[in-house]
Amino acid sequence: MDFSLSDEERAIRDTARQFIAREVMPLEQEVLRRERANQPSLAPDELAELRGKARKFGFWGLGTPAEYGGMDLPAVLQSLLWTEVGRTYVPFTFGGEADNILYHANEDQKREFLLPTIEGERISCFAITEPGAGSDAANIKLSARRDGDDWVLNGEKTFITNGNEADFCIVVAVTDREKGVRGGGTTAFLVDRSMGWRSEPIETMGPARPASLVFDDVRVPARNILGEIGQGFELGMKWIGRGRFLIPSAAVGAAERALQMAIDYANTRETFGRKIGDNQAIQWMIADSEVELEAARWLILRAAWTVDQDADARHASSMAKLYGAGMVNRVMDRVLQIHGGMGYTRELPIERWYRAVRLIRIYEGTDEMQRLIISRDLLRGYTKIGGHLS
Ligand SMILES: Cc1cc2nc3c(=O)[nH]c(=O)nc-3n(C[C@H](O)[C@H](O)[C@H](O)COP(=O)(O)OP(=O)(O)OC[C@H]3O[C@@H](n4cnc5c(N)ncnc54)[C@H](O)[C@@H]3O)c2cc1C
Fold first, then answer.
1. Which of 162, 248, 284, 302 has the highest CB neighbour number within 10 Å of its CB?
2. For the chain, how long is the longest CA-to-CA vector?
3. What is the spatial distance between Cα 109 and Cα 188, in angstroms, rounded to a whole number?
């Protein structure tokens, strides 16, 4: 068993770390200032400029196949790079990526949707959640009714990331109520904003600003069906599956950086004539955070490694998402506690992290849904305790 990184992995990871430190982190104070003035943290042209700089460094389309100009990196390396990006709270991600399910598009759709999304010329969003169906995604109601060569969409989606900014939306709709959602009764549609859907921003406790989307007799030509009729739910689950090891990878970066801040503070802040880090209460918070970080790191890398083996990574990814989400919330809470009153102020980014990471326990499958998946796999015998080593 070898837990070390290869020279290549280390070199790519270190270059990304330098890029984030030199080009992205210097924007942090400005991001905080803008957010506190209720302004957008990063303008679209600023994000495009950063992504362009990263492209010159060689970072473009981490998971994008080489034929589309991407790096086509293994999942383990993608995870390592998401951790580097997670160190900064500037809302930056490397460019050159598109939703994984857009690769199911036909050649015309690829030209119209996939390629411009990779190039950053068009913004996509993905919509399955509805006011009456979140965890229970199989209960969606937004309907698509065939009318000649078109389909007519009616219903509502909610909490859609990028829904305010998107030029087009990948929408999962019910096309055959008889068959049911799991029986092939749903279909994914590529729907331009110009076809008539409306979006309304939803304010949240963190920096995320998703949207609710309204489809009121939105007419979509049949050529805009993504994949096959009846494949909508399957594509939706594939879309969600990708984030399950990448989201906690970024969480590891945020937790590592925040924990280092807490260690530095514990080594300098004095009370009762000595450093607060001399107290066991503080030492234990630091120790527990380090242990949980390390545990999360290996669960995540194991999930990514499973993806790279072309094996079924759902069980491993659910464990990584569940534990990574809990870990980053516990670490941020301790980091805030170690900073005392300062941690609670808006002088430091800790309160922002604290609010932002709360989302990770909710979106792309809540903690409870991950537990449901993990326990169901065991109860039904799909997975053995101990996984691939058993
Ligand atoms: C900022 C943000 C961005 C998002 N982005 C997107 C997006 O881009 N696209 C998209 O389609 N969706 C998106 N979502 C939706 C997100 O995936 C859902 O919010 C999430 O799946 C939970 O669904 P819900 O909010 O309807 O909660 P519910 O499903 O109503 O759950 C409420 C509570 O009950 C628990 N619960 C539900 N069922 C069970 C059960 N059987 N056993 C035990 N506990 C249960 C849940 O875990 C939760 O704690 C986003 C959400 C947020 C907040």
1. 248
2. 81
3. 13
- Binding site membership of 164 for ligand 1 (Cβ less than 6 Å): no
d(CA 277, CA 292): 19
Which contacts qualify for 207-210: CB closer than 8 Å, 24 or more apart? Answer: 207/35, 207/41, 207/89, 207/91, 207/352, 207/355, 207/356, 208/161, 208/356, 208/359, 209/164, 210/158, 210/159, 210/160, 210/161, 210/163, 210/164
The answer, yes or no, to whether any atom of ligand 1 lies below 6 A from the CB of 366, is yes
The response to whether residue 134 sits with its C-beta less than 6 Å from ligand 1 reads: yes
Cα 137 to middle of ligand 1, angstroms: 9
Average pLDDT over residues 367-380: 97
**Structure confidence at residue 359 as a pLDDT band (50, 70, 90):** very high
Question: How many angstroms is it from 379 CA to the middle of ligand 1?
Answer: 23
Contact call for residues 166 and 218 (beta carbons, < 8 A): no
Closest CA to 364 of 167, 173, 128: 128
- 364 is an active site residue: yes
pLDDT tens sequence across 147-168: 999 999 999 999 999 999 999 9
> pTM of the prediction?
0.96
Residue 208 Cβ inside 6 Å of ligand 1? The answer reads yes
Atom of ligand 1 nearest to the CA of 204: 1
Find where tokens 């109860």 sit. 379
Q: Name the closest-CA residue to atom 44, ligand 1.
A: 368
Has residue 95 got a pLDDT over 80? yes
Q: Return mean pLDDT, the chain.
A: 96
| pLDDT-derived band at 246, boundaries 50, 70, 90 | very high
The confidence band for 42, taking pLDDT boundaries of 50, 70 and 90, is very high
Higher pLDDT, 1 or 8: 8
Label residue 89 exposed, middle or buried (CB < 10 Å: 0-12, 13-18, 19+): buried
Closest approach atom of ligand 1 to CA 125: 8
Q: Is 229 in the pocket of ligand 1 (CB under 6 A)?
A: no
